[in-house]
Amino acid sequence: MRYPVGNGTQADFDKHWYIASFFGEYRGNYYHSGDDYNLRTGGNTDLGQALRAISDGEILGIDNTSITGFGKQIYLKFKVDGKDYFAGYNHCDSIAVKSGDKVKEGDLLGTLGKSGTTWAHLHFSIKNNANGMDNVPNTKEELAQWENPTLFIKKYLNESEDNNMIEVPSADFEKLVKNSSEYDKFVEAGYSSVNDVKELEQKIKELEAHKCPIIETPEPITELKLKERIEESVEDDVKIIRKYSL
Ligand SMILES: [Zn+2]
Known about the structure:
Elements: H1 10-16, E1 17-21, E2 35-39, E3 50-52, E4 57-63, E5 72-80, E6 83-95, E7 102-103, E8 108-112, E9 122-127, H2 140-143, E10 146-147, H3 149-156, H4 170-178, H5 183-189, H6 197-209, H7 223-245
Helix pairs in contact: 6-7
Zinc ion (ZN) is lined by residues 21, 32, 34, 36, 123.
């Protein structure tokens, strides 16, 4: 399991995101059914961020006409220990999947938005009961049909070394890395010897196209940021090489 935003890891979530409004808060006549995720940079800077599947599963439904103010919604059905759960992605800007789609953990489902609300954020919920997704809990008893979504993710988070590492098909691997003039440098000296910014910039684009874990920097990309980003990406790149050179 991974977080629905950023590169999915706890480290990335802690570094770039915060919870603006918590699960279970009482709002006068109902309880907040999820956590609201925002980029630390505030405002609408998170508008358009990728929303990804927290787990393998199936798109149970999408909704563009919420009567409860959730805006554009995506519902992902997934299993944990043989039991069905339902993740809700609310206030989306765009939706990239349709009802019935089978998805893999990390797949792009849509983008973070502000539909049905004023400021962009992801209202993220996990329900343990399939009795309707587009509703809110009015009592404590009803609230028990929802999980605390962040605690739930933390409990099942996959923090193994290969977390979010997408296996690149060997043909693509050849194209991406093995035939690169940098190949020996990557393998023998690690990423510190690689200085060709243009080539690495291109490599990042290629890796992103293969859904490899790139740290998403919410700030404008300055030269320093780009360098940090390249170093992080190359580190991932080296992991991929090691994976294939075993
Ligand atoms: Zn919310």
